[in-house]
Amino acid sequence: MVETSPYVDELIVAPRRRGLAQLAGDLALGRRLRAARFDVAIDFHGGPRSSLLAWLSGAPVRVGYEVTGRAWMYTHRVARPRALRARHSVENQWDLLAALDIPPPTPAGDPVEMRVDPRAAAAVDARLSAAGIDPGDQVVVVHVSAGNPFRRWPQAHFVALVRTLAGAGPRRRILITSGPSEREAAEAVRAGARAGLDAAAGRRVPDCGEFTIAELRALVDRAALYVGGDSGPLHVASTSRVPIVGLYGPTLPARSAPWRGADIPVASIGVAGLACRPCDQRRCDPGDFRCLARITPDEVADAAERLLSAKMG
Predict the structure, then answer these.
(1) Is the preceding peptide bond at 250 cis, omega within 30 degrees of 0?
(2) How does DSSP assign 234-276, residue by residue?
(3) Helix (H), strand (E) at residue 227
């Protein structure tokens, strides 16, 4: 997500290993960081590994969260409340920058950014063209998966939504995307939607294969709308100007809605009045994932049409 950023001079990836190999790798990375003689290290993650690497960097200024057992590794410590506050995650993490006297952010002035990779954009254009999608078609991206089961809208709901959206116009094309581990879910949604449509409408739900993160970012620039749950791809989409319908179950839009200018249409849908929402996403106390299951396909389709009409207007 950051490798195309013009603000990044060097990207260092910390490899994942196991056991002693992980520790040895982290110590070697720590020596590399120390040799670079960084002035400031900011630990946005706050986990045991990232706090260790911040300390090993030897930077004279090390900023991190006030976490029991690890706070000593930082020179500047910032409180991190354990309660799930109705405050955006960008603002929560910006607290670390406030420790360096950096002014507070605004969505319009400091939007989340991810630059489009020209190679990914060319690949996406070629794949859409091969699928018979013309530049004048109205593309709707529907992302059907999430890395966390607590954030997955029911598959049957996605099927009903795609059928409704595909049946609304001859120039509309519904592209179903998913993560690599949920390719079968995307295929099932596509097949289920087509099964309830006539042949002409069924062709409006083409199979364009999987998209990498870079390709997804390029794809949403071609789209008229993005629909999906509160997961990584939604936040990739939020770095564009595409209107977004976000589905929020155990999480709150106040914490994780797209962080960008208010002039870009967004609809954040969740079930109000649930005492169990938000939750820590470790277990569903009611057992039926009602925070997502009670979001109806009609409700999402109505929001989608409203945003599409606003974009066209």
Answers:
(1) no
(2) HHHHTTSS--EEEEESSS-HHHHS--S-TTS-EEEEE-TT-TT
(3) strand 225-229
Neighbours of 19 (CB within 10 A): 7
pTM for the model stands at 0.92
Q: Enter the DSSP assignment of 45.
A: S
β-pair partners for 64: 77
Give the tens place of pLDDT for each residue, 101-148. Answer: 999 999 999 999 999 999 999 999 999 999 999 999 999 999 998 777
For 5, the token pair is 């950023």
Domains of the chain in sequence order: 19-98 (no CATH), 118-312 (3.40.50.2000)
Cis (ω within 30 of 0) for the bond into 278? Answer: yes
φ, ψ for residue 165 (rounded to 5)?
A: -65, -40
Enclosing H/E stretch for 229 = strand 225-229
